[in-house]
Amino acid sequence: ADGAMGTPPADAACATQSVAAQTLPLDLYMMIDSSGSMSEQTAAGPTKWMAVQTAMGAFFNDPMSAGISVGLQYFPQIQPNVATTCSSNANCGSFGPCDLYRTCFGPTTTQIVLCNTNADCNRGETCVQLGQCPLSGGSCAPIGAYCPSGDYCVPYDGYCDGRDRCDLPTYATPAVSFAALPGAAPALAASLAARQPDGRTPTGPALAGALQAAGARASAVLDHRVAAVLVTDGLPTECTPLDIPAIAAVAARGASGTPAIPTFVIGVFGPDEAATAQPNLDTIAASGGTGKAVVIDTSQDVTKALQAALNRIRTTAVACSFKLPPATMGAIDFNKVNVQVTPGSAAASTIGYVKGKASCDPARGGWYYDVDPAAGQTPSTIITCDATCAQLTSNATARIDIVLGCQTIVITLDDPPQRSGCSRRS
Prior knowledge:
Blueprint (H helix, E strand, L loop, with lengths): L16 E4 L5 E8 L14 H14 L7 E7 L22 E2 L2 E4 L20 E4 L1 E2 L6 E2 L13 E2 L3 E2 L7 H5 L3 E5 L4 H10 L8 H18 L4 E8 L11 H13 L6 E7 L1 H17 L6 E4 L4 H15 L4 E3 L13 E7 L5 E3 L15 E3 L11 E4 L1 H8 L4 E7 L22
Parallel strand pairs: 2-3, 2-12, 12-13, 13-14
Antiparallel strand pairs: 1-20, 3-11, 4-10, 5-6, 7-8, 7-9, 15-19, 16-17, 16-20, 18-19
Helix pairs in contact: 1-3, 1-7, 4-5, 5-6
């Protein structure tokens, strides 16, 4: 048989049980960027970090968040007893070399262009150490040159390359372990208050660690929906993977794994950075199965926008995943399960089954189990395809029912759609 949204429901005469679908309990592993740039101010006055603290505190204490379990970790994690700044490799010890910012400089240079060697620069330019003007403000080169206010160009502080940790297990170990809200809110708030922005942006291992922790949690609580939430104010600057496609591949492995872990992405960027950040973070979010990233411009009310983004995650993370109800008599026959939707006052229809996410049709949608019963596994969750999920979430009054006992209506993608001949009996 071939079914889709709009197919008449399975014949109620064969049904042994019909239960209103229940969404799964939600667990979130939050990986929060606490790099040095989080100390930058927003247009409203507070720093990015203060805005993040306030928004997350409101989310944790919102009555609508009650029952959600949250695990929390930050990036970067920093090696102990390493110099905060450096001017030479000797300052860093075994965590060097000392990374000193460098820029192309020549007789006609008019802007800062970061470089590593002379080969990165135009003809007639050399790669020199980048400095700053203490009184005039802004960057300058070469070191020792006069600045507009008559002060001298002095070197920026260097950064020990090995100061921030790149090992995945560090990020897979939560600073605050999974616990349910609102009881967990005080511990989460205390952790955020104790954290101070510092370091660079090792997005790759941070996301990989978050997905590992979320995957372990999902394996331990099979009847929960677990997701990773990445909140960042910068694109990756260190550790591997470093480029966006490689980091997106990490998110894709999480979304396609067993259990599947989606990645939600929230960015907080200055107005001049937001346009560049959006497509890059969208790539990670799309690969992580959550569509587009939410990028917040710091000229906005960052606290309000971030809280709205977290509220959206709370809703969408579980909107289209449902508990498979236990059978009232005997064991469930997984070939006799159907999903029905009743959109408001309209007639009920049956959503067709597909074997897995890879078999979802972009137009007809469908639903699938969290694991394949044909492979001898025992499903516990019903998940709808993206196209069906979009239809369900667009109708706040829709009712979803899980019906046991009738032969499953299956979407066959290689055949044209055919309407089921079953009729509904009341």
